[in-house]
Amino acid sequence: MRWALPIMLGTMLLATSAPAQQAEPRLDLSGPFNLPAGWQLVTTQGADVEDPGGNTAPGPLHLCITRDGGKSCRPALDAMLVAPGEKSVFDTPHYLEAAKIIHLTPDRPLLWVQVASLHGGNGDQIVGRMALTYDRAGQRFVPVYAKRTGRNNNQDVRFLDKGPLRGAIISAEPTTDAPFAFWITVNRMDSHGRYAPVLRYRSGTGYGDGNPLAVIDSEMPETLRRLKLWQPGSPLPLPEHPCPRPRLVAQVLWCTYPPATPPR
């Protein structure tokens, strides 16, 4: 459920602890990308550390795409969380949340990596996602999409592997001004082999509306309509999980009856 109070990373509030996620130490890349033997994503993790809230947390991650067992990286992915400006304790990945092969098309694989920082004092994290392809001329992997978000405010980034937007990457990020809603951005691969935005709009989905659907799911009919991939009167695009009472309310998908008064 979405709530209406934006919260930034901080150390003043009581921290929430979460169990450490075990990083997969190696992911084979030779097979999926039809490369010579030895290509891997190798992940190593340092000793436990204390996070800003005083809790024990997993140590820093080192992520290396390598063809020689980690002697050289082509490239290293340690800077996925770094933003322009001053350095921060949240610039370093400590949690490996995903490392997997996705497919833009059946014969076009991409490497998808998702990492997260230490928890802030309010439990928030910086989350970084990156999609990479193999550059045969340069004999290295190169990013084709990268995105950093927080987590506390229902931010979401999703690669779509089926449906009319197969191969697209959609993100939902909270607006900073009232009426509080979300920026929905659809990215598709362009002619240069990089993901680029093809649609960005302010959602009809709002904070505190009582809709239990993820924002990307509640906005899917409107997203597809704006891209001329769906029109009212056609079957509704539904999420993969059960949706017992699908209905549109002000262009927003609901799977339940909306509350008479949105929760506060």
Automatic annotation (TrEMBL):
Signal peptide range: 1-20
Record has Signal as a keyword? yes
Q: Which UniProt keywords apply?
A: Signal
Lineage, top-rank taxon, reads Bacteria
Q: What is this protein called?
A: DNA, contig: SP612
| Species this protein is from | Sphingomonas paucimobilis NBRC 13935
